[in-house]
Amino acid sequence: MSENPVTEGQQFPLTIKRIGINGEGIGYFKRSVVFVTGALAGEEVVVEATKVNPRYTEAKIRKIRKKSPHRVTPPCPVYDACGGCQLQHLSYPEQLKIKKDLITQSLEKHTRFYPNQIKIHDTIGMGNPWGYRNKSQFQVREVDGVVEAGLFGAESHELVPIENCVVQHPDTVKVTNFVRDLLEELDIPIYEEQRNSGIVRTIVVRTGIKTGEIQLVFVTNSKKLPRKRELIDRIQTAMPEVVSIMQNINQAKTSLIFGEETIFLAGKDKMTEKLGEIEFDLSARAFFQLNPSQTEKLYREVARAIRLTGNEKIVDAYCGVGTIGLSLAKRVAEVRGMDTIAESIEDAKANATRAGITNITFETGKAEEIFPKWIKAGFKPDAIVVDPPRVGCEDQLLQSILRTNAKQIVYVSCNPSTLARDIQVLAKRYNVKYIQPLDMFPHTAHVESITVLTLKN
After folding, report:
1. What is the DSSP string of 139-160?
2. CB-based contact 368:416 (threshold 8 Å)
3. Residue 347 is assigned to a ligand binding site
4. Annotated binding-site residue? 289
5. Is 387 among the annotated ligand-binding positions?
6. Which one of 76, 85, 393, 414 is the catalytic residue?
7. Segment 337-359, tens digit of pLDDT
8. CATH 3.40.50.2300 fits 104-126+291-455, yes or no
9. Which of 47, 116, 138, 171 could form a disulfide with 207 if both were Cys (CB 3.0 to 4.6 A apart)?
């Protein structure tokens, strides 16, 4: 293969051809690919190479010679430094088009389908794509003697203080800022990474958009939390909507937010949220969708895809707290779900009991181990819903699915690359009916989608 014609620090003109999976602009210089943060399709820019690899170059914009008509001014003051959003500089209708294109790109790259072989619908967006995130996890650090809460910058370990995050629900911002100021006022020791000293590391806030309940979790470097009583009293007096206050202990030097141990501090140990008609009790570490209004649209699409008659047996693989399975249960004969996180399965069982749903069972364990066990015992599913993490489905699970003769598979994906890889495997026995993209995280490069597969005759 020919060497990269670019050298580090080199400046050169570039025409941006499309947007890549991380929201970056993609162009070609002497047939070598160049990724440019913040550049938009159709723009003519002058860039400077910041990182040169044999197969590609990373570059930054020095000058925009021809601007995209879809370029807008990001409303967030720390947009460039934070890195949490990647597409605020692109108009929202255009973001929806880009997300559809990201799925097309993944199919071109990871499958043997022709792009026009698969029907990809237009992306389902939000009426108001701001203030949608129901959970925040803001790091707490002392910066120049002042307690700050925020996120670590893009590809750095510098804290970017955030006073008002435009994609977070206003309640999470309000609680975070109040608690941050209270930590400073009460002089509670703040975590210091280099020395692994201090106590409060992260403020986690989750709000129930439908219920108004709020859960607050202090992630700390030790079990002790000085002035705990006063801290709790002040929070409960000022914010009665904070119904659950918990402490999670994480003493590891890690980028993971939570440790294994969670302690109850005040209120109740779980908060309640509703999706559709079903109430969910959420413990501090339980996974729950971050954008409930779009999640309801997602589940409506899943239900519509399966074409239920009432007699179906359904598998909900990677079920979490049971949200998809419970949303379908009243319209089918039986649902079985599985997940690797025991707390999620406990929550799922409790959520089913609370909703009075008796035709659903949940099991803790790996989908690729539990599913074949069920099949061996004579269980025959009519439809299988998979909602795997970003790494996609385990091959062992895909092979088991291929052997079941289930009439339909609905694949809910948060990563177009692993989706494309997995549907190429499933295509041995299934036709891809359509892919429906959905914008779960406006202003980011993430794209959620629902792929409907039907058994070949």
Report:
1. EEEEETTEEEEEEEPTTS--EE
2. no
3. no
4. yes
5. yes
6. 414
7. 999 988 889 989 999 999 999 99
8. no
9. 171
